[in-house]
């Protein structure tokens, strides 16, 4: 299965379908690594490792795609941006966003983070750990921020997912990383949606129907393989 997946990756590479080929390379290499671990024959292990090295070299090219979200555009829910990169081998996610807090935004950033976590829980991936790096809310909002994050943490634990939370007073960058090598940077972080017109207006629940603020999304891929 691993060899067939890598063959498919090569075909996609030749067809200049680089994004799909990188996903196939990663999945194929992961499957071959599982074979290496299960094989006791040292000669076979050596051959498999040689093949994996060849495939890793082929998949080592850097990838960058940029998506421009226009003002008031719709159809850019989290599934649209992230789902194609959440392959089955994704088990760990890092979220760096300084504004996962209350502030003056009526808890939108915290709800956005919750929606992002919901996508991970029901996605095709098998996420076990989420790392969140954010900043403390100001003044009295800090206690509400901590209560909300603790509730998200406890809720995730019911689905077998651990949420690790760290705080930084100097964090400015916004990025999301998956342990299959994909990294997504959104200019506005997770809070690129506009406030809904009302609690019962279209787009309140379905983010695909929610108008967006103008922002830029950059998608990168770097070499990321497990040690053999």
UniProtKB/TrEMBL annotation:
One of its GO terms (cellular component) is midbody. This is MITD1 protein. One of its GO terms (biological process) is midbody abscission. Residues 75-221 form the MITD1 C-terminal phospholipase D-like domain. It comes from Oxylabes madagascariensis. It comes from the Eukaryota. Residues 2-54 form the MIT domain. It holds the Pfam family MIT_C.
């Amino acid at each position: 299965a691993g060899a067939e997946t890598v063959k498919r990756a090569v075909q996609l590479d030749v067809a200049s379908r680089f994004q799909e080929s990188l996903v196939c390379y990663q999945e194929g290499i992961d499957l071959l690594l599982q074979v290496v671990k299960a094989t006791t024959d040292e000669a076979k292990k050596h051959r498999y490792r040689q093949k994996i090295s060849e495939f890793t070299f082929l998949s080592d090219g850097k990838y960058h795609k940029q998506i421009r979200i226009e003002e008031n555009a719709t159809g850019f829910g989290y599934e649209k941006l992230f789902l194609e990169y959440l392959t089955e081998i994704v088990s760990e996610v890092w979220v760096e966003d300084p504004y996962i807090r209350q502030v003056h935004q009526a808890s939108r950033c915290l709800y956005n983070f919750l929606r992002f976590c919901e996508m991970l829980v029901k996605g095709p991936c098998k996420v076990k750990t989420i790392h969140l790096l954010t900043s403390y809310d100001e003044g009295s909002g800090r206690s509400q921020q901590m209560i909300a994050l603790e509730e998200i943490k406890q809720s995730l634990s019911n689905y077998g997912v651990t949420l690790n939370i760290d705080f930084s007073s100097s964090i400015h960058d916004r990025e999301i990383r998956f342990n299959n090598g994909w990294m997504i940077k959104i200019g506005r972080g997770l809070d690129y949606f506009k406030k809904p017109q009302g609690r019962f207006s279209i787009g309140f629940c379905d983010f695909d129907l929610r108008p967006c603020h103008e922002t830029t999304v950059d998608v990168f891929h770097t070499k990321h393989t497990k040690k053999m």
